[in-house]
Design brief:
The chain is 64% helix and 5% strand. The protein is mainly alpha-helical and 983 residues long. The longest helix is centred in the middle third of the chain and has 21 residues.
């Protein structure tokens, strides 16, 4: 007789859903199917049938299963799934996966490296896994099967949640099984079902015909050969559960109550006496028929969980390898266990319920003694409790009733999870340790729990626990340790831009620190950490002191304190605090000059390399690359930093660097490259909740539109930027200056640009500066010189500031210098300065350069110096080619004013929507129509932006009314709004 039925019974409807999902997968549309049901109901069988059908279609199949203990290490089912595939087909070598290999090394041993790696978050790992699955499914699709999610670790559930939300557009199908037990897995399934991001199948008990089909399959006979009495007994006692039906039938056969004749006839004896009253009794009887040493092996193995390793079982039993395998073979012949995983060390009980039923056989005292012997044997055989044995020993001590020893083991497992960045698992383990710990031992565990909660992003709970430590009685941590915890939480709050929470944690830390408020010269290691957090906190918009009369004083005080903190931290071997301090000094030190800022970053880099801090090392390289671009306009060093971040597997840092490179591409006029970079990273940053870079990419997209003179697109992107939390952020000067002011100039609206730059100056006067390309140090002074609001003395103040050495600012300051020289009648000197500008910046920042030359040409025409006609022709050609019609029109108007010939431009018809083009609307009329969509501009405003006369605007509007059949200007505006929204 077969132990299990060879066919899947009673699941035709569910298999139809799986088949439909596979059909969508073949069309590169992924998704998720969750299969819910009680133990033994057939979840695994349905998943296995789906996997077989997928494999038959050429789909790549990966399979993994969660551990019953939940303590076998984070991401165990995912590691098993990847191993199940790599053993057969090998993992792909694809350039797209290069940045993600270090993150995937968590679960792919072949990709691990000896050197220090970046401690990626679970979301970063989830994105890496998503990319790997997409590559695997590129040709025929990829199926990931994960079983028993109700027993999965927190990290696996976080990854599954991420996958569920992001598979729809990828050739990846996830099929996952779970019991309908209250907990995180069921919550995940319920949310996915309600959000319609997954199909949720709930398996019901088999009906009587289904029970008959299972029995026939196990007995190897036709269904009509199974006696009705046998079917009734199986249906009644098994409740339609396929596993229980199979177990009960096996017991009937073993007891002789059911026999199959050679001709296929099934004979039924005394079923009332032949079938045990329960599956537990059945297992007890089957166990009793085995050799006692085999029975002891099975009971010990059941203590280890439904799946166990041979090495661990051997340690727990203390027997030789030869005797162990002899007993395992006997247990396998009896139908209790089977080898699993395709390796040499894995075994599992035939079903989860088998292990549960075996553990119910001994009495509670016997079970406790069994667990105690196993835990003691494991600790003696492996004192370090390598691999996953620490969590396993914790569960064994719990089953043995040894709460103190169990707590210690859970705490150690929590520390290991914490060191590996598995924060959610660490939280669960420390919570269990705290629950079991004797009162005097509980506070240190709670301290670790608070740190783990902060690492997991649960700051509110971390803050609450930190407060309770002071009331923990005699076992409370010393004041110094509690102060360290508050300082750590204050730093986490600063990173989350939660200024009020950070200040509360700093207040609590000060109250616990000796010599709180003492002189800087007496700074301790804790004082250094406090000073660094205070310095970063002072830079947050909205912090107390912002808006005060003298932000320079605050900056100087913060810089002085941070420098002392860096020195103290290096002497006290606090490398992370030292890196934090040097990073702060690099930001504040820009006011002293970028050589000074770079020197701070080089110190940060040296500390990070000396103490093997890969995250801080890459951070230093990125900041050095940003400074190099601002000083020279070259992105080479930043691109090298991106390669380093990719090699390290620092996914978030790689995204940060790509965002900066995208903005640099905008400034260099490489618009297509910038657009591709934004589109490539925007979705991934949202999925990873990398909000700071996501906001920066949205701002880059808005700046891209602004530099092309497309106000509507800029406003749309800025709206997205504000919805993402960009309002009142560090980036406000960039929004006002590099984005909105530049767009106004591209529309030939100089008063609007001046107003935006005035807003930048007001914002920067109220708080320490972080960004230096916002216009205050370059574009603003040029406009002030052109409008006679600034003279040579004012310009000299700007050119003497550290920000003047930045290439983007320097080009505008040199143009302003040329205007003043020309205005003073020093034409030769002015022309020489202009020649330097053209030679240095024309290719580096083409849009900014030609815009500057257009502005200066007007002054040169008025003052009679230089060769403004040449400059205007070059600028007109550039802006006509890039589609910035307002500036191109202004250049043509200035050329006419100079008496030079003007090339007629009749291009642009391709930009007119077909329906309007067929009416005979000209390119210039369409430009007027497009401007009507931007609000309610007057004819003089339109004339100024297109560099034509108001009378000409009147003629174009009259022509539009006639050609479009609209009745008046309001109707034209409505039409314009519809046209501008069209793709």
């Amino acid at each position: 007789m077969r132990v299990t039925s060879p066919v899947t019974v009673g699941r035709s409807g569910e298999l139809t859903v799986v088949d439909e999902a596979l059909a969508r997968l073949r069309a590169s549309r992924g998704g998720t199917v969750f299969v819910l049901g009680e133990a033994g109901i057939g979840k695994s069988r349905l998943a296995r049938e789906g996997a077989d059908r997928a494999a038959a279609l050429g789909v790549r199949v990966l399979r993994g299963r969660s551990s019953a203990t939940g303590l076998t290490g984070p991401l165990r089912p995912l590691a098993e799934a990847l191993a199940s595939y790599s053993r057969v087909g090998g993992l792909p070598v694809d350039p797209e996966l290069e940045p993600y290999r270090p993150a995937l090394a968590r679960v792919v041993p072949e990709w691990r490296r000896a050197e220090a790696t970046y401690p990626e978050t679970m979301v970063e790992f989830a994105e890496a896994l998503l990319r790997l699955l997409a590559v695997l499914g590129r040709e025929h699709g990829c199926l990931l099967v994960l079983e028993d999610l109700h027993e999965a670790d927190h990290e696996t559930l976080a990854v599954v949640d991420y996958l569920v939300g992001n598979l729809a557009a990828l050739p990846v199908l996830l099929v996952a099984t779970s019991r309908p037990e209250s907990g995180a897995a069921l919550d995940l399934v319920g949310e996915a079902g309600r959000g319609r991001t997954a199909d949720v199948l709930t398996l019901r008990p088999l009906d009587v015909p289904g029970v008959r089909a299972v029995a026939a399959g196990c007995l190897g006979v036709e269904e009509d050969r199974v006696p009705a009495a046998v079917v009734d007994r199986l249906a009644g006692d098994g409740g339609g559960n396929p596993y229980l039906v199979e177990e009960l039938l096996a017991a009937m056969v073993e007891a002789g109550a059911v026999r199959v004749a050679p001709d296929g006839l099934v004979a039924a004896g005394d079923l009332a006496t032949g079938v045990p009253g329960s599956v537990v009794q059945s297992h007890a009887q089957r166990l009793g028929r085995l050799d006692p040493v085999v029975g002891h092996l099975l009971l010990t193995a059941a203590c280890l969980g439904p799946r166990f390793s041979v090495a661990t079982l051997r340690m727990a039993l203390g027997v030789s390898e030869q005797h162990l395998f002899a007993r395992l073979r006997a247990a396998a012949r009896a139908g209790f266990v089977v080898p699993v995983g395709g390796g040499t060390d894995g075994y599992a009980f035939r079903h989860r319920l088998t292990a549960e039923a075996l553990l119910a056989v001994p009495t509670p005292p016997e079970h406790a003694a069994l667990a105690r012997r196993a835990a003691t044997a494991l600790e003696n055989a492996d004192p370090l409790l390598a691999e996953d044995r620490c969590g396993l020993v914790a569960e064994l001590w719990t089953a043995a009733g040894e709460r103190g020893r169990a707590s210690a083991a859970y705490a150690e497992a929590g520390r290991r999870a914490e060191s590996g960045g598995a924060w959610a698992s660490a939280v669960a383990l420390f919570e269990r340790a705290a629950e079991l710990a004797p009162a005097p031992d509980r506070p240190p565990v709670v301290e670790h729990l608070a740190q783990a909660l902060a690492g997991a992003g649960e700051l509110e709970r971390a803050f609450e626990l930190a407060e309770t430590l002071g009331m923990a009685g005699p076992g409370a941590p010393a004041a110094g340790r509690r102060a360290d915890l508050h300082l750590r939480l204050a730093w986490d709050a600063v990173l989350a831009e939660r200024g009020a929470d950070a200040r509360r944690q700093l207040t609590a830390a000060r109250a616990l620190m000796p010599r709180a408020g003492g002189p800087v010269d007496g700074m301790s290691g804790q004082g250094a950490a406090l000073a660094v957090v205070e310095g970063h906190l002072a830079l947050l918009p909205g912090s107390p002191g912002h808006g005060g009369p003298d932000p320079a004083v605050r900056t100087e005080e913060a810089e002085r304190s941070a420098r002392r903190a860096a020195e103290v931290a290096e002497r006290a071997s606090l490398p992370v605090v030292a890196c934090q301090a040097w990073h702060l000094l690099a930001l504040l030190g820009r006011e002293r000059g970028f050589d000074h800022a770079d020197a701070c970053l080089e110190r940060m880099l040296a500390v990070a390399e000396r103490h093997s801090l890969p995250l801080w090392r890459v951070g230093a390289l990125v900041r050095l690359g940003v400074n190099a671009f601002m000083r020279t306009g070259s992105s080479a060093r930043l691109e090298a930093a991106r390669r380093t971040a990719r090699a390290l597997g620092a996914i978030v840092l790689t995204q940060d660097t790509e965002g900066m490179l995208a903005m640099h591409a905008v400034l260099r006029g490489e618009y297509e490259e910038a657009r591709e970079a934004v589109d490539r990273s925007l979705g991934a940053t949202a999925r990873l909740h990398n909000l700071s870079t996501h906001r920066y990419l949205l701002l880059t997209s808005a700046t891209l539109a602004a530099h092309r003179g497309n106000r509507d697109a800029m406003d749309q992107e800025l709206e997205r930027f504000h919805r993402a939390g960009g309002a009142d952020s560090f980036l406000t000067p960039v929004v006002l200056g590099l984005c909105r002011a530049f767009c106004a100039l591209m529309e030939e609206d100089r008063p609007a640009a001046t107003a935006e730059l005035a807003a930048v100056a007001a914002w920067e006067a109220a708080q320490p500066q972080v960004f230096y390309l916002s216009g205050s140090h370059g574009l603003g002074p040029l406009l002030d010189v052109l409008s006679n609001r600034a003279d040579r003395e004012v310009l000299r103040e700007h050119t003497g500031a550290p920000a003047a050495e930045l290439a983007w600012n320097q080009q505008f300051l040199l143009l302003a210098e040329a205007v003043l020289l020309g205005r003073d009648g020093r034409a030769g000197e002015a022309a020489a300065v202009l020649a330097t500008v053209r030679e240095t910046y024309a290719a580096l920042f083409p849009a900014a350069h030609h815009l500057g030359m257009r502005l200066v040409a007007e002054a040169a025409l008025d003052d009679g110096w230089g060769d403004p006609v040449v400059w205007l022709r070059a600028a007109e050609e550039y802006f006509h080619t890039t589609g910035v019609t307002a500036v191109a029109g202004a250049c043509r108007a200035l050329l006419r004013r100079s008496g030079a010939g003007v090339r007629q431009r009749r291009a642009g018809r391709e930009r007119i929507p077909a329906a309007v083009r067929e009416l005979g609307v000209t390119p210039r009329e369409y430009e007027v129509l497009a401007l009507l969509a931007s609000g309610r501009p007057s004819n003089p405003e339109i004339a100024r932006r297109l560099s034509i006369s108001p009378r000409t605007v009147e003629k174009h509007i009259a022509g539009l009314v006639r050609k479009t059949g609209r009745t008046d200007r309001s109707a034209l505006r409505a039409l314009a709004g519809l046209l501008i929204r069209e793709p």
